[in-house]
Structures are given as structure tokens and as C-alpha cells.
Design brief:
By secondary structure, this protein is an alpha/beta fold. It is 37% helix and 17% strand. Helix 2 links the parallel strand 2 (33-36) and strand 3.
Length: 300
């Protein structure tokens, strides 16, 4: 199976000052999917411009025709399943059925406290995620939903006519722990990982590959436990967070070597960040575009 190449375009530029052009160029370059982060702000970008994911993807849907669009990732940190479902159904309709929802449990960044709450513990995040995903699944597949849970409620929430994609738009579930992997196995059409964060500072690429192999094995176990064939799920690697860091984007050969090693692990999609000068995602735009245009043919 050919390895798909996708990109993630951070929403830090005004639409008419480079934002629109990047999404249009991504489609011209042939990326399978262009994602964006669904955060209220993020790390070093906190004190600069940062725009909302859903409006950005809506605008991107209007200026593209073929490329899929998505979030990497949406989380319960500031989202509620009822309102999120309405936005997703609308965006799936506007895009003509090109939307993928990357979804995860969230973290301890700025999103975790922006609404005035204390940051949730890992257990609390897992508990909420365990309720969030099944309820969102129902909201996207049923015309009317009522639900009373520990964290979320829905009272006759209507979502007619539902998604363009049937039975609903695909979920790409970001997970490495046992509870998240069980959700990926049960509800996901894809699984997302960034690798093992413990290896980012002092690990080696070889250790990262071993860690990813272990994660994939746990995903297979989770699928087996629910009677699902793990090969039904796409496997997505969001790059930039392994010990390799930005080295795969230094040249076409470097990227093909990196992607090939991860393709051997069973990954079906590699996501690379659109270059951002003077940031952790700095890269030569010319090399980035060469990778987009030439690497997929070498990875078939």
C-alpha cells in the first residue's frame, strides 16, 4: 500500500496574508490531507496571532476541491460534544464530505485552563475522553440524542441531516495509553501518534522506532479485544515530535529514509508541518515542496 503524505498548517496567519495561499498551495502539491491544530493558542505562538480551527477549515473548504481537511487534534479541553457535532456536520457538508476529525484526550497546555478551570489530571482527561468519543459518535450518526453522563449531557439534540460521509465522518483517534487505544479500536477509522514524548529530548531515532512498534502492537491488542481487524485502521504519524525533529525535512533523501522506516512499521500516512520561519517547524520551503511532489512516488 502506498504511503500517503499529508501536511498540517498552523492557523497563525491572517487569511488574506498567507493563510489562504497556503491551503490552496497544499492542494496543488498533492497532499492527501491538510490538517490544522484545534487549540485556543499553542506553545510559542501564544502571544501572537492564532485563529480558530473550524472557521479556518471552513474557509479552506471553500478554496479547495479534492484535498481532505481535518483537525490534529480536537479535544475535550474546551469542546462539548453537542456543539462540536453541529459544527462538524456543517463543515462536512460545506467540504463535500472531505472532513476527518482528529481527536484526542487533550493535555496541560493553555487550552486546559483558558475557560477558568483547573487542569485535569491524566485520569480525569481519560475519563472525559471515554465519555466524549461515544457521545460524539452517537450525535453524528443519530437524528436525535438524549444522554446524561458524568461529564456531558444532551437533551434531544438534533443533527439532521447528518454527515455527508456515512455513517459519519471518520475519527482519527490520537492515543498511546490503554483506554485511548480501546477507543481507537472501537470508534476510530484511523489511529494517530506523535511517538513517545519521553524520547524527544534525549532518545535516538532507533529508540523511537522501537517505541512506535510497541504502540502499534498495543493497538493491535486493543483491536483484537473488540473483535476488530487492526488493518481496518489507518495509522497516522504526526512528525516533529520524535528525536528526529526537523531532520527529515532537510532533504528529499532524508525524508524518504525516515518515511520508509515508518512505513515498514505499518504507518499509512505521514504528516509534516508546513514550514514556519523562526520556529520549531522551520524548514526550507523549496525542499518541503520537493518532498511533497517527489517523495510519494518513491514510497509506493
Amino acid at each position: 500500500m502506498s504511503l500517503r503524505l499529508s501536511t498540517v498548517i498552523l492557523p497563525y496567519r491572517r487569511w488574506h496574508e498567507g493563510g489562504r495561499a497556503a491551503w490552496m498551495r497544499a492542494e496543488q502539491l498533492g497532499f492527501h490531507t491538510a490538517y490544522t491544530y484545534d487549540h485556543l493558542s499553542w506553545r510559542s505562538f501564544r502571544d501572537g496571532p492564532w485563529f480558530g480551527a473550524v472557521p479556518t477549515l471552513t474557509a479552506a473548504a471553500a478554496v479547495t476541491e479534492r484535498m481532505r481537511l481535518g483537525t490534529l487534534v480536537t479535544s475535550p479541553n474546551f469542546r462539548h460534544p453537542v456543539t462540536l457535532a453541529k459544527e462538524l456536520i456543517s463543515l462536512d457538508d460545506i467540504s463535500g464530505g472531505r472532513l476527518t476529525l482528529g481527536i484526542g484526550a487533550g493535555g496541560t497546555g493553555f487550552d486546559a485552563t483558558a475557560l477558568g478551570q483547573e487542569p485535569w489530571t491524566p485520569r480525569e482527561r481519560a475519563d472525559r475522553f471515554g465519555e466524549f468519543v461515544p457521545l460524539l459518535h452517537r450525535l453524528l450518526t443519530e437524528d436525535a440524542v438524549s444522554y446524561e453522563g458524568d461529564f456531558y449531557s444532551a437533551h434531544e439534540a438534533r443533527n439532521i441531516p447528518g454527515c455527508v460521509q456515512r455513517p459519519r465522518l471518520p475519527f482519527a483517534v490520537a492515543a498511546t495509553g490503554p483506554r485511548g487505544l480501546r477507543l481507537a479500536a472501537r470508534y476510530g477509522q484511523a489511529w494517530v501518534t506523535t511517538g513517545d514524548p519521553r524520547l524527544f529530548e534525549h532518545g535516538t531515532p532507533e529508540q523511537s522506532v522501537q517505541a512506535l512498534r510497541g504502540q502499534a502492537e498495543k493497538l493491535a491488542d486493543a483491536c483484537a479485544a473488540v473483535g476488530r481487524d487492526v488493518t481496518e485502521l489507518d495509522r497516522i504519524l504526526l512528525t516533529g515530535f520524535t528525536p528526529d525533529r526537523g531532520r527529515p525535512l532537510e532533504s528529499l533523501d532524508a525524508f524518504v529514509d525516515f518515511a520508509g522506516r515508518h512505513q515498514e512499521l505499518g504507518f499509512t500516512e505521514i504528516v509534516i508541518h508546513w514550514p514556519i520561519p523562526d520556529s520549531d517547524f522551520a524548514a526550507e520551503q523549496k525542499v518541503f515542496e520537493q518532498i511533497a511532489l517527489e517523495a510519494p512516488a518513491q514510497l509506493r
